[in-house]
Design a protein that fits this description.
It contains six helices and eight strands; from the N terminus they run H-E-H-E-E-E-H-E-E-E-E-H-H-H. By secondary structure, it is an alpha+beta fold. The termini are far apart. The mean pLDDT is about 95.
Amino acid sequence: TLREYARYLATEAQHDEAPWYLASWRFWEAFPALLDDFEVPSWLGDDWLAQVDEAVRPTLIWMFIGPPRTGSWLHLDVAHSSAWNAQITGRKRWILFPPGQDDCLYDGRVNAFAPDLARFPLFAKARAVVADVEPGDVIFTPSAWWHQTLNLETGIALTGNFANAWNGEQVSAWLDAHPLALAAQGLGGLAEAFRQRLRRAR
């Protein structure tokens, strides 16, 4: 339970070799009222994924809670969407890689914070952007940028993924190419619904 995890953070997490990380928590399923406690910044623009038919509309908002030394693996965001990530408490380090470096990143198998160059020698050629975020900071992850995170302190963060005029074509292409992944999540009609939203924008 969340109560048990809070107790773990306070008493045991600092001593674990691999601490538990509450990642990608769909908090709105248990606590829908929390969605009323924040507004997505207007400068991020429209979210076309949030404007498709409700029957296939995904909710791409998550919370992350974890102690130092936890974090995400190296990855691309779902459907090549963009993302915002708001740091609520604690400090977190981000490492991001602009597109065009896939050969150096080994499909995300390399730990960007402690790379094994014997196994992943091309990683030495990768160009990265590194940023530390603190409470109140919001970081933007562009479409198709590989990224990894590392909590420097116990912290809470809120994140959301979106698609709009800037990345709509990329997102639509990904949705069209992955019908089985969408069907497995009960979103079989999302690709067509998003394609219609893209047509209206055009």
